[in-house]
Specification:
The structure is a homotetramer of 136-residue chains. With 136 residues, chain A is of the alpha+beta class. The first copy, chain A, has a single domain (4-135), classed as Thiol Ester Dehydrase, Chain A, CATH 3.10.129.10. Chain A is built from three helices and six strands. Chain A has helices at 4-14, 16-21, 52-68, and strands at residues 24-29, 32-38, 72-83, 92-102, 106-115, 121-135. In chain A, strands 1-2-4-5-6-3 form a six-stranded antiparallel sheet, with helices on one face. The longest helix of chain A has 17 residues, at 52-68. Chain A is globular. Chains A and D meet through strand 5 and strand 6 of A and strand 5 and strand 6 of D.
Chain lengths: 136, 136, 136, 136
């Protein structure tokens, strides 16, 4: 059985999009994790703020790491995100994924995204994963 | 009053993330649009398939273009996406955004994502936007 | 193998809450269905309009019937609903459930809710079900 | 300015569906509340468990009370619920609504539903409300 850190290192080595996002792993435990990244110019949308897909992708990577850390390969099935406050270039943001439930087949997680400088959340993400029978 | 195409051209010129995704606009009308993109290696996750954030970002751009095409600046508030089938490198995908409702303040859209080679959807996205009083 | 109608009749006989809602089944096919009900006084909330839970329950029953009609017992895992227009007492409403995808384990459905007198939707529902290995 | 308790009492007096559900208000503060109810036979579905609409309605009432407690009339726009564990007749359940964000126009809340006898959640609800300019 691999440790949560080993599993996430294995995932990150091939996760080219999380690499592009510049994700840093601050913490990883079974069922939870904490990530950090910085909003760059190529992440902005036509309003001059971070594209909704950036915040989503950040939270979805957190979901992926938290849910796969148990050792079973898990894929996200259904996710939702509420965008609360806009982000701009250079904002440093943190994602915290927490497991709300853990059954054999289905897992539910929430991910809170906030600026490193302010505990108020900028986005709230909820994700449901399907746990396959494949092992990392 | 600008045309939907003018508005989307203005948005795209500053939408650096949609540019990075390589979005092509196949069609744009008031309240709807159709986009195309190709999955590239830097868009993959640790499972070797397209990161969920890529499909989401693609659908969210479609939501942004469709909802802003009326002329009022609109921002997505709440969105959800069901991931149905995995995508791999080189897959060409299409997003079709349709307006389900249109009130003064709140708009609801669905976006279907499917491969150019197969009408079966790979992801289903639902988005709610808040229409500001600012005009493009 | 039981027909979709047989399965839904079996479900309805024990579905006391759908009975309380006063659901009428207008149509049932493999993977889809169409239901009707009327908003009653005991379904209203503190704003004097139909409680959000009424529209949700109506759509969720439609999801249940459509997804179980294949013969495998299926339970809803994750659902979302956008409330677009308020409903009042005596409104006659219709729910149409459509299957967007059908895999072995996971099914995705959308349900549109509208008044019998107006094709504009009042609510848009998306649901994900998990198909168990139990058969009706 | 009315107190949160006054507002919820005014809402409950006309909220016939929450009365039918048998909601008891355990706690109400600005932006949050805690409710209790018991699953009755007429709340069951064709699987013999609580209809998904019951848990949703319970959580949606909690959202309504928590979001209206600020004094502005607020209506739910977009909500999602993850159903995690089934409930049966006689189960006593608790809903806790928490405000995740509070802006002038849009509010985001999560509601956790669990049995009185077990802190593990049976459902996780996320809701977005639109705050009107009308005052209770």
């Amino acid at each position: 059985m691999h440790s949560p850190k080993d599993i996430v290192d294995t995932m990150m080595a091939k996760d080219y999009f999380s690499q592009w996002l510049g994700l840093q792993i601050l913490e990883i435990k079974k069922g939870s994790c904490k990530l950090q990244m910085t909003v760059r110019k190529e992440m902005l949308n036509g309003h001059g703020t971070a594209h909704g897909g950036i915040t989503y992708s950040f939270a979805d990577s957190a979901l992926g790491f938290a849910s796969n850390s148990h050792g079973q390969k898990s894929v996200s099935v259904e996710t939702s995100i509420s965008h609360i406050k806009p982000l701009v270039e250079h904002d440093i943001i943190i994602a915290e994924a927490i497991e709300e439930s853990c059954s054999n087949k289905i897992g539910i997680y929430t991910v809170k995204v906030y600026k490193a400088s302010d505990p108020c959340i900028v986005a709230l993400f909820k994700g449901t994963v399907y746990r396959t029978s494949k092992i990392w």
